[in-house]
TrEMBL record:
<feature type="domain" description="Chemokine interleukin-8-like">
    <location>
        <begin position="15"/>
        <end position="73"/>
    </location>
</feature>
<dbReference type="GO" id="GO:0005615">
    <property type="term" value="C:extracellular space"/>
</dbReference>
<dbReference type="InterPro" id="IPR033899">
    <property type="entry name" value="CXC_Chemokine_domain"/>
</dbReference>
<keyword id="KW-1015">Disulfide bond</keyword>
<keyword id="KW-0964">Secreted</keyword>
<comment type="similarity">
    <text>Belongs to the intercrine alpha (chemokine CxC) family.</text>
</comment>
<dbReference type="GO" id="GO:0008009">
    <property type="term" value="F:chemokine activity"/>
</dbReference>
<keyword id="KW-0145">Chemotaxis</keyword>
<dbReference type="GO" id="GO:0006955">
    <property type="term" value="P:immune response"/>
</dbReference>
<keyword id="KW-0202">Cytokine</keyword>
<protein>
    <recommendedName>
        <fullName>C-X-C motif chemokine</fullName>
    </recommendedName>
</protein>
<dbReference type="InterPro" id="IPR036048">
    <property type="entry name" value="Interleukin_8-like_sf"/>
</dbReference>
<dbReference type="InterPro" id="IPR018048">
    <property type="entry name" value="Chemokine_CXC_CS"/>
</dbReference>
<dbReference type="Pfam" id="PF00048">
    <property type="entry name" value="IL8"/>
</dbReference>
<dbReference type="InterPro" id="IPR001089">
    <property type="entry name" value="Chemokine_CXC"/>
</dbReference>
<dbReference type="GO" id="GO:0006952">
    <property type="term" value="P:defense response"/>
</dbReference>
<dbReference type="InterPro" id="IPR001811">
    <property type="entry name" value="Chemokine_IL8-like_dom"/>
</dbReference>
Length: 75
């Protein structure tokens, strides 16, 4: 039981260090995008994170595993 508790606690604290909690598979119109940041896995987060910064000041996270999105970004 204690090993399960430790794993759950580690998983909760570990996730909180990632910038992207929720990810989307939708890309807004390119004219609305200011920048796209791709953050590799690090010591604080095991995930690749893609953050879209919009011209209006908002930002959201994209799912880096979404293949159709990656093809659009290559164009």
């Amino acid at each position: 039981v204690s090993s399960v508790s430790i794993y759950i606690l580690y998983n909760i604290t570990h996730r909180s260090r990632c910038l992207c909690i929720d990810v989307s598979d939708k890309l807004v119109a390119p004219k609305e995008i200011k920048a796209i940041e791709i953050l590799p896995p690090s010591s604080t987060c095991d995930n690749v994170e893609m953050i879209v910064r919009l011209k209006n000041g908002n930002s959201y996270c994209l799912d880096p595993k979404f293949k159709r999105l990656i093809l659009k970004l290559k164009k």
